[in-house]
């Protein structure tokens, strides 16, 4: 995780915890430079990140102020920060998984770069379908480095991998970088998601990070478009 992202996350935590109240002014740029020991460019990038997240507003000549979010907005942002997995997100439904493929492989150069490992290292490669109330919602393609996330077995994959990471391995999941795009399903996805070839799906490409900045997961989740929605907060 880049330094400006760490700073943005720290300020974000302060906003969500109430340290910075709605409409309150954030410390001046100079003060934040001294507090975090970084340049003005780094602080500017951190604040711009918070602006894009809809948490703060820049006012020319006045400073940066916390946006007045209502309770639902704060809940949405807080939940996103906690990096919920499928099991937690649909805990009001009966959740189960089916393993399509599970093997140990060497990563490609692209995947190794995203996970900050080498092509000689080993990763789990998992393909699984997630169900809620016996309806297929998403098929996941997951890569995780074995050296960082040991102990992944069938019983873990049939339940919650994130729960295994946090409760069994005592690692803290911190954040994720995501790209979302629309696409059409391939034959495998048509079968497992029980959809037709012209049924649109949403791909969420993701790199997940632990609290020490280490990537622990690279994945692509292909969601049925009728079973998923993404919410954001936008400001002018």
Automatic annotation (TrEMBL):
Family matches, as PROSITE patterns: HTH_GNTR
InterPro entries the record matches: Bact_HTH_transcr_reg, Chorismate_lyase_/UTRA_dom_sf, Tscrpt_reg_HTH_GntR, UTRA, WH-like_DNA-bd_sf, WH_DNA-bd_sf
Gene3D superfamilies xrefs: Chorismate lyase-like (3.40.1410.10), Winged helix-like DNA-binding domain superfamily/Winged helix DNA-binding domain (1.10.10.10)
The entry's keywords: DNA-binding, Repressor, Transcription, Transcription regulation
SMART domains: HTH_GNTR, UTRA
Chain ranges of the HTH gntR-type domain: 1-69
One Gene Ontology term of the molecular function aspect: DNA binding
One biological process term in Gene Ontology: negative regulation of DNA-templated transcription
One Pfam family of this chain: GntR
Domain of life: Bacteria
Protein's name in the database: HTH-type transcriptional regulator GmuR
Gene from which the chain derives: gmuR_3
